[in-house]
Design goal:
Blueprint lengths: L21 H6 L6 H5 L7 H18 L6 H17 L3 H13 L7 H19 L9 H8 L2
Helix pairs in contact: 3-6, 3-7, 4-5
Length: 147
Amino acid sequence: MKHSCHDSNICVDKPNLSKLSPSMQMSGLYKQTEEEKLYPERPLYRTEIGRMTWKVMHRIAAICPESPTIEDKYRITKMCEGLSTNFPCKECAEHFREEIKKLPPEVEDYKIFSKWLCYQHNQVNKRLGKELYDCDNLQRILSEFKL
């Protein structure tokens, strides 16, 4: 069964505990949402899936061959395209699809792919009002996400 934002909570962001008042945090009133208590096997929130997906993608970029074969380039490109159509949050998938139409995956080598991926990650972070990565500091990015 396919899920969309309308029939599941896949497009819901997990509550940010850091935005709760200090008294609420200290009181222990918010340890788990009612939804999580009632449905412990609920689908992951899109923020959880997104965080895991970026980690996997950056790790893949970090271990890509320095000189990828044509087959390597094809697989990496297809992985990105597949993610842009099959990501569980359809809104996120559509956004990624639009971004890779503007700037297709750059897979000439792992450094170029890592920078491309960093740029794409920053596009999402801009939309979400999050801190941006320094895509020129490739060593930091690679070390942060390396296996």
